[in-house]
């Protein structure tokens, strides 16, 4: 599939919890003229625990080839990659790092593109809290993996019980709806027609009275991306299991 623009957030490449193989398959099956990496594309907070795999490199190599073929790549800073410039140079991605940008849709509407951590409560924007969150997330994912293997062997379940509980606890502290309202207000003050973000790991796409809100989701749990197709429609994409290709958009938002 080909798209006018694709928006990816919270890939967390380099973290042990990243699902780089699925992301690499998805990108190889779905190309775009312009790619927005909407924050936390890399996750090198803890150099001792960085896990850079062949599939992580596949993702980077694919994006580099697309740039060489004429595609545009736009990198937005996230709270887990506060200083990605040095890493990008080492990885061979020569792209500037920005805080926020405007995307112009096919019909001329403008959307603010921003990671979204700028609208967190001040306490949660601190580097300390980001590091604590990373340690908790990776620790819980590791325990969940071990716990899940035992349950699978017993034939009981194959989910991620502890990870799901941690996410729900996080939503109690910082609800997705409150986060959305703050980002919508920021975009309205910026005098644009909508906002595309990430950060909260909760995929969403809807339009209210002509104002667009889209959250790309992530590549740890939801495995989703937002894309504008060649006809100018915004879509929330989800890869087909184990293949990376998109069989049906999870949701379509048609232009007016």
UniProtKB/TrEMBL annotation:
SUPFAM superfamilies: Metallo-dependent phosphatases. The keyword Membrane applies. Residues 4-202 form the Calcineurin-like phosphoesterase domain. Keywords: Cell inner membrane, Cell membrane, Manganese, Membrane, Metal-binding. This is UDP-2,3-diacylglucosamine diphosphatase. The lineage of its organism: Bacteria, Pseudomonadati, Pseudomonadota, Alphaproteobacteria, Hyphomicrobiales.
